[in-house]
Amino acid sequence: MKEINFSKIGRKLKETRLSRGLTQEYIANMADVNTSHISNIENNRVKVSLPTLVHICNALDVTVDYILSDEYIDPSSVLDEEILRQLQLCPLKTKKQILQIIQIL
Asked: Are 57 and 85 in contact (CB under 8 A)?
């Protein structure tokens, strides 16, 4: 059985946070931890606990599955579900634009 790659999890949390324009301070407040703890998780100085991971994911508005998808044997199904979840949040006009982009690709 392979080890969980906490370094990759931390990087994915950081990438997701930055893509949403959120600060470590905001995530720390939402997760009820210190800002330094978020930094330590993102930079693989500590392993994130399951409760903290759930709180961070809630603050980032992503599923735990999405953050852990690289740990699965077949991460594509998790990615498909996350795409659908995010798509449901979009207004109709944006959905139509996304469909056009997908059809072009």
From this structure: no
